[in-house]
Design goal:
- The protein has a single domain, classed as NADH Oxidase (3-Layer(aba) Sandwich), CATH 3.40.109.
- Helix content is 35%, strand content 14%.
- The chain is built from six helices and four strands; from the N terminus they run H-H-E-H-E-H-E-H-H-E.
- A four-stranded antiparallel beta sheet has the order 1-2-4-3.
- Helix 1 packs across helix 4.
- The radius of gyration is 17 Å and the shape is globular.
- The structure holds flavin mononucleotide (FMN).
Length: 185
């Protein structure tokens, strides 16, 4: 699929087929994600990917994340999703990918993880897979107990999380409006 087509056809997928995603495909997607531009001139990879593989595990973790998000809501827009009927943090996805980095005061870590995340979503789209960015999972992912269970080193903070899987249909989504553009005189 052409990059421009992937950009325009990608939609947040909240329903997945039960079949797993091949680990080789996941690795290719993460390799694509790691091509995102990074501030260090060295080109060093400033993030780490954590893969949660398996629909049953993802569902169990999703219910834990949901419980925490409901009982200890965070300030910010991520709470909106909790009000949706029959909301499920990770839906029925077979895979969740968490992008982690060492936190920094200048906010580069979150930007690095976000750039990699955008690549990840477009790569998945180009490969016929679906994703959804799931911010509602972050409070749970940042719990020390979760970090220990998932094997995330203390030095790393989860900044972005995505479901991944074979989509169960493609939602129409909301067509974007043309953005304001200022052509300099
Ligand atoms: C930073 C960020 C966090 C998001 N968190 C969630 C989330 O927790 N749950 C969810 O269902 N969708 C989440 N989304 C997906 C947005 O709802 C979605 O991108 C938006 O509605 C536009 O739809 P589209 O992705 O289909 O174009 C998030 C998107 C972004 C960029």
């Amino acid at each position: 699929m052409h990059t421009v087509d992937a950009i325009h056809t990608r939609r947040s997928i909240r329903s997945y087929q039960p079949r797993p995603v091949d680990r080789s495909v996941i690795e290719e997607i993460l390799w694509d994600a790691a091509q995102a531009p990074t501030p260090p001139a060295s080109g060093d990879t400033p993030f780490t990917f954590v893969v949660i593989d398996g629909a049953d595990r993802v569902a169990l973790y999703g219910s834990q994340a949901f419980e925490l998000a409901r009982t200890a809501p965070q300030s910010g827009s991520a709470n909106d999703w909790l009000d949706l009927d029959e909301f499920s943090v990770f839906f029925n996805a077979p895979v969740v990918i968490v992008i982690c980095a060492e936190p920094d005061e200048r906010g580069e870590a979150v930007q690095n993880c976000s750039r990699a995340g955008q690549n990840l979503m477009l790569s998945a789209e180009a490969r016929g897979l679906g994703t959804c960015w799931v911010e509602t999972a972050l409070p749970w992912l940042r719990e020390p107990q979760t970090g220990a269970e998932l094997g995330i080193p203390d030095t790393l903070t989860p900044f972005a999380a995505f479901t991944l899987g074979h989509p169960q249909g493609m939602p129409a989504g909301k067509p974007r409006e043309r953005p304001p553009i200022i052509w300099t005189p």
